[in-house]
Amino acid sequence: MYKIYTKPFGVPKRHVHKIILIMRLTTILIIATIMQVSASGYAQRITLKEQHASLEKVFKEIRKQSGYDFVFDRKLMFKANPIEVNLKNATIDEAMKISLANQPFTYELEEKTVIVKEKEVGIVEKVKRFFTDITISGTITDENGKPLYGVNVAIKGTDKKTFTNNVGYYIISDVPEDGVLIFTAIGKQKAEIKVEGRSYIPVSMKMEINELNEVKVNTGYQILQKSSVVGSISSVNARDLNFNGLNSLEQALQGKLAGVVITNTSGLVGTRQKTRVRGTSTLSGSAEPIWVVDGIIQEDPLPFKVQTLNSAGAITPDNFDFIRNFVGNSINWLNPNDIEDVTVLKDASATAIYGIRAANGVIVITTKKGKAGPVAISYSTNVSVTDKVNYDKLNMMNSQERVGVSREIFNRGLISSTLANSTIGYAGALNDYLYNKTITADQFNNRVNGLETQNTDWFDILFRKPLSSNHNLSVSGGSNNTSYYTSFGYNLSDGTARGNDSRGYTANVSVNSIVSKKFTLATRLSTSNKTTNSFYKVDPYSYASTMNREIPAYNADGSYYMYTGPNRYKYSVLNELDNTGNLNKVLSANAAIDATYEIIPGLKVQTLFSYNAVSTRGESYATEQSEYVAYYLRYFEYGQYKAVEQGYKNSRLPVGGEYNQFITNSNAWNWRNSLSYNKVFNQKHVMALMFGHEMSSSRYTGFSSTNYGYLRDRGKSFAVLPNTFTTGATINPLLAAQQPLITDNLTNNMGMYLTGSYSYDDRYVANLSIRTDRSNRFGQFTNESFNPVYAGGARWNIANEEWFNRTNWLSTLSVRGSFGYQRNISSSVSPTLIVKIPTTSTDAFTGDNLLTVNTLPYGDLRWEKNITMNLGMDFSLFQNKIQGSLEYYTKRGKDLITSLNVPTEYGITSMLVNGGSMNNTGYEVTASFVPVRTRDFVWSVTLNTSKNNNTITKTGSQLATYLTAASGGLNKAGDPVSGFYAFKFTGVDAATGYPKIDLTYPAGSSVNTDPTSYMTYAGKFDPDFTSGLGLNFRYKMLSLNSSFYLQVGGKKFLTPLYTYVADLPTEFQNLSRNILDRWTPTNTTSSVPGLPDKSVAYVTLPNGNFISPYEMYNYSTDRVVSASSLRCNNIDVSYNLNQELAKKLKCKSINVGGGVSNPFGFNSKDFRGIDPEVATGGQPRTRSYTLKLGITL
Amino acid sequence: MKKLTIYSLLLLTMGFGSCKKFLDEYSQDAIRPGTVADLSALMYSDAYPYQTLIDNFEMLTDDIQSNGVARGTTGEQIPAYATALINGSAMFKFDPNMFEVGSVFPNSANAYSIYYAKIKGCNVVIDALETVSGSQAEKDAIKGQCLFLRAYYYLKLVTTYAQPYSGAGIVPESAMGVPLVLSSQVRDGGLARSSLKQTYDQIEIDLLASIELMKVNYFPSSSFRVGTTAAYALLSRFYLYRALNTDWDKVISYAGLALQQNSNLTSLVTFISTTGVPINAGLFNSGNPEIIWLYGLNPNSDNATYYPSLTINTVPPYTASNELITSYEQGPTTTNYGDLRYKTYFSNYNSVIPYRTGKALSNASYGTKGLRVGEIYLNRAEALIKRFLITGNAADKTQALADLNTLRVTRYDTRTTAYKTVAIDDAAALFKFCQDERRRELCLEDGHRWVDIKRWGLPVTHVFTSTDGSTATYTLASGSNLYALPIPATAIATNSDLRQNPR
Question: Rounded to the nearest 5°, which phi and psi values hold at A1146?
């Protein structure tokens, strides 16, 4: 007797239903029951041929032929796949193996019984199955069979979901038999698979089709496929940015993006960098690019301030500019560790959608988002040490050499026009010996010996080797529908100058959720807090680098050595640093919500709202013990007079110091709504249209004040100022000077934009964007009609043509071109007179109201026009081993508004006028290639290079003096923008030691209006060519990354050898060792001019002006040096611990590494080791060493 | 339903966006001037020399002497004094590079840019008058004041940076004046200097026009504002400075017109306190009827550059010269101080020795510059003597003496002793007396002495005492090139067509 048993035995019938309900398919039970089956039969060979048969049917046939009984649960058969069998004289074993080859079953032969059961899994699984309903498991692999980790597996229509583990395996329970499983993973095609009762569902996921060889580019408004980009865009992934020992994103971006030039202005911690995208295109407004984070334009924490130029054309900073430098830019709040990638939009077609604000380029930052998957916690930290600045890099004199200069001054009887030379150093000793007669000849000699050996190391005293550290913790994860990313960062940066440090905290939460099939929502909330300590009225670097080393810093008893300074008050830089300070705090909060709703497939409406609040508070102070207060405010030495004495009564500020406070609150919101439609027709025509509307408003409210009488050490209280001072009872002017200043600034902008693109068969792409903006800026053309910015472009993906022969070496090729037109009007200029209410708004004597001129009318005001063209080519060679792109651009600016110095007789020093025309042309090359790629060793190279030619084609009226020509401010048709001129140095006059300058000029030159006729063209300040190079190596788990930055073609004037051009160097100055070989009456053949003094004979310039020959020497060909340099920005090593070790430490991965920033550089020798970027007097950046650790749990 | 919500949301957005209010111009303090009131406010601030620190060339005159740097009790140099000594040394030593880049050049000595900034204010107001609403009379009053002020500044400029009009060997048609800017429009290129004659002609045109505009229905509300009296007074000064032979009649007639409107002189006897001590009660008091027009800044701020506040018992680096202070006739007793100007026109150090100007009202925050009746008498007296020298008409001499005595009688201590009338017969001696009287009356005030030295062709000798006490003598010869002060290098640098004065 044989039977197919499909029901458990020994179970009362009335319970069957319930048991089935609770414990369907419980193998254990089945095994328990089959033991009671007694079956009979005999061995028989099986021959069977079936196609698309059910497994049950096959079993029946086998039973018939072999006589074996079958035991299985019929429910199992729901999971069976249809089979094909072709058996000839097969044994029962063979027959079963073949039949079950593709089935989720195994079998056992027990005497004459075949027991069919589910494939065995681990004990856990068995237990699980025991207690749950239908449970499905499987392994998910990619197309190559490699298991996929973190794939989201969800049951359609429920909340239930799970993820694959690190071998790609998943288990999901409570699945309805007729349910559907959804498999999703980043970069993979979504798969929906019907369960159909199966308990084992392996899936092979395909790569998402448009991700195939395709990079997406986020422009802030749209996410484009790289193959449909017509403009000029470059991106860098955060992985490739190095933040070791750096504290701003800009520094890390240096040399990473072609066409983006980042310049450091100072080595101080917390100062902002200068960022330029494809050169400068406006001369009157802010030339900084706009920064965009997750689609939202970031507003500066402080309102833009038009710099005021002094008569020599130099920028005159005000009291608060110093504070401003430490506030940072609009992305100050962003934790660099949260950045996913950075994209720069360079040409008109890429930026047109941003309107006129984007004339300086756009830098788009995308932040990290949570990824669906189990919670991932990662922690990273780095610690860095920075080198001190020292004298080796400066080539300054030691004490003995400096005394030698003073000795020469005395021996030669050179005369100073000021009194500053008689208190300290050699001159001071001489004064006491010869004039005051307070010391004897022996005492004098002893004192001079002391001076000669003093050699105070100011850098050692004022600088340190600072330790900086960063800690960053991020947690991310989420389900299929909602994912999150949070991060917390802490940064502590100490500057090399003692007293300069900054620390900051950042926190960030972002949540992305798919609310429904049609509705998605993304939110982000970030806050940051940063505190920077710096200096007020003292600059340790300039002090250390210029101060005479004969002066000691401390007395023998350890107290500060106070000497009579240039202002004739007691001075000690250490005392000054103790008694002055500058503190800035920036607190910002940033929130954004982005909602997208798909109305019908392809038609989406998106609304994006963001709010940003920044509160900036800066304070600076000087206490009454500082020399600054003594000299500028009190007029007597600290403690010199008692309250009863006349000297005390003569002071405007007998007690207390100065306290400046500066508070700015910025509140900005931005609201953008857009409607986009994407449609593909006939598989070939792809059309995308977007129409949007944007409103933004930013309001700055500020309050700044200066208060006198500050008593820091008396509980930060304030002393009351005397109402009058002197015997004549003069009214104290400081009372009026304490007037506070309120800033209230509101900028509203509204814009509408339309962009469309069409591509045919992924071969031909065309794009057009148009945008118009209106704002509430005062003095703008408010009656101006519709005046859009527009741009368009086209692209041809040649490699997608059928005829294109993908030869061995050329894999892909595409060309693109774009064109754009922009008009802009400067808000600082007006065609009509604008007056403003002055800070003192009424006449103190008559009570009349007062108004003062704000901007003079400029009758000829025209719009600035910019026409931009960009041509690009993208290619890849040798099966994508080398990828690269070439770009060429021209930018023609017409009627650009420039600030020109005007004759003093107009009553103003400079005015904004439509200055002239300018052409920018340039090319950029970006390439990456992998010379070696083996399993264990990879060597990759990334390179970007740009060259910019900038020519002025027409100039407006301008100030033509030797100083404007030498400072690059004289724009001459045919010369580049920063081109400058130098006097022709012909040597040193053997008789006088004065520099000789050739002032001859070609006959017929108009010397009065053209100083360049008697000067010579010396080059330009801006580099022609900048290049960034990255070399990366990986050997197994060890990788080494390095980046280099090259700039070629710039020239600079060296800092002057003699800062006083008609006077002696003072005893407060140290001098360059370059003048050791100077002209002296005994060394008349020297090529270095001798010491200038008061008697220096002025020379008449061809235009009739007087000038000191030393002034000309400072701007002469002898002082011009090449600013070309090659610098290694950083070298880093990192090592990933092997996974087993990491697992033992209960981590997913552990990464350790270290690096050096600024390890070396090659500059023009004349710079003597100083970074040319800061050679004009700023503090150089020094080498720093970093150790880092990253852990993922 | 959902769609409807979306669409209405969209519409709402658009509605919001097109809201006109959102795009209304906004500024904290900027205004487009639209009424004469706006322009008056603009004029008070930008055309009037309201609290402006200008004109500090006393250091060039013989009214000042150098004393070096005094030392404190412990022998240290007094810092505020050292700074002041440096500030004044280039001018005091007649250094031709005094306003060059790199020389010590206090802000208040850059009169060139200060005056031109004010001229811009005048031009802006004059140009904008046509476009604002208001009555013609109001507009005329504003224009009259602006023309007056512009003329005043140009007269200051041309007397500072150009040679005297009637100086020896000067041809006004070809000699260099100053660049004339008569409109607020900024033009391309540089600005060349007009001739001396063109400059003076323009000043004359502006002043005459200002009288026509102001005389009908404008009267200044206080001594801080100018009116016709100020214009007549300035014209008398202008013609005196121009000093053509035909100008003496004009000086006399405009001085007469001014005196017709205001001939008040302050009797200095009123400055003697009830206890019989003469005090600096402030000649430049806005309530003093002798003052026609008053401007400038707190004299303490004004003076700090060269004459710092006193440190007890020490001599400041620069003080009123011995030559000046001995020119005052001092009385024998405390009941007769003689010439009261010695006691009331100066601040004293050690409570005795005259030091810097004391013409300010103590506690005043306004200045000691402008026009006053005393000067008009002196202008007229000088012109009368000049005319007498040409025509020999004795009536002129009598009138000149009368004017001088009218002034002097108010300056002397007449409490117990009657004023002794001056009577001089010799024309040259009378002219010398008039010059001395002018120096005594207008000392350390509004740059008078420097212009007088130039137009009278006087030499100046200075003995400079440096910090170490050593002395050196510097001389400004009569008719020196430096009579036309060098234009500051900063101005030369910005104006390619501006020619420097020969040095």
Answer: 60, 35
In whole angstroms, give the CA distance from residue A240 to residue A233.
Answer: 17
Q: Which residue has the tokens 């050996």?
A: A453
User: pLDDT category, A328, cuts 50, 70, 90?
Assistant: low
Q: Coil, strand, or helix at residue A813?
A: strand
Q: Which two tokens stand for residue B165?
A: 């009009």
* DSSP symbols for A598-665: EEETTEEEEEEEEEEEEEEEEEEEE-TTSHHHIIIII-S-TT-S-TTSHHHHT-S-SS-EEEEEEEEE
Amino acid at A646: Q
Largest Cα separation within chain B, whole Å, is 113
SS3 assignment for A214-281: CCEEECCCCEEEHHHCCCCEEEEEHHHCCCCCCCCHHHHHCCCCCCEEEECCCCCCCCCCEEEECCCC
Closest CA to A787 of A859, A864, A861, A855: A864
Mean pLDDT for all residues in chain A: 79
Residue type, B59: M
CA count, 13 A, side-chain hemisphere, A830? 18
Residue A1145 and residue A1116 in contact, taking contact as beta carbons nearer than 8 Å: no
Nearest to A1155 by CA among A245, A253, A250, A493: A245
Distance CA A850, CA B44 (A): 6
Does the pLDDT of residue A168 top 90, yes or no?
Answer: no
Output the pTM of the full model.
Answer: 0.70
* Kind of pairing between the strands at A152-155 and A161-163: antiparallel
Q: Which residue of B has its CA nearest to A438?
A: B75
Contact across the interface for B496 and A1008, Cβ inside 8 Å: yes
Q: How far apart are CA A632 and CA A319, in angstroms?
A: 14
Instruction: Match 């300074």 to its residue by tokens.
Output: A565
DSSP letter for A48, please.
Answer: E
pLDDT for residue A387 is more than 60? yes
Q: Tell me, rounded to whole angstroms, the distance of Cα A565 from its chain centroid.
A: 42
The span from the CA of A785 to the CA of A781, in Å, is 9
Q: What phi and psi, each to the nearest 5 degrees, are found at residue A943?
A: -145, 135
Whole-number pLDDT of residue A56: 80
CA distance A656 to chain B (A): 19
Q: B-chain residues within 8 Å CB-CB of A650?
A: 309-311
The C-alpha atoms of residue B289 and residue B291 are separated, in whole angstroms, by: 5
CA distance A490 to chain B (A): 38
In order, the DSSP letters of A1054-1087 are PPPS-S-SSSPPPTTB--BGGGGGB-BTTBTT-S
Residue of A nearest to B499 (CA): A1104
Secondary structure string (H, E, C) spanning A362-378 = EEEEEECCCCCEEEEEE
pLDDT at residue A466 is higher than 50: yes
Query: Do A832 and B490 count as a contact with CB atoms less than 8 A apart?
Result: no
**Euclidean distance between CA atoms B228 and B231, whole angstroms:** 5
Cβ-defined contact of A419 to B366 (cutoff 8 Å):
no
Residue B75: list chain A partners with CB under 8 A.
436
CB count in 10 Å sphere of residue A201: 23
Percent of residues, chain B, with pLDDT higher than 90: 56
* Token digits of residue A108: 């056992």
Substitution target from B494, B495, B499 for chain A, most A beta carbons within 10 A: B494
Q: What angle do CA A120, A122, A127 make, to 5 degrees?
A: 100
The residue count of chain A comes to 1193
Residue by residue, DSSP assigns A825-846 as: --TT--SS-EEE--SS-B-TTT
Taking Cα atoms as reference points, which of B315, B325, B269, B291 lies closest to residue B444? B325
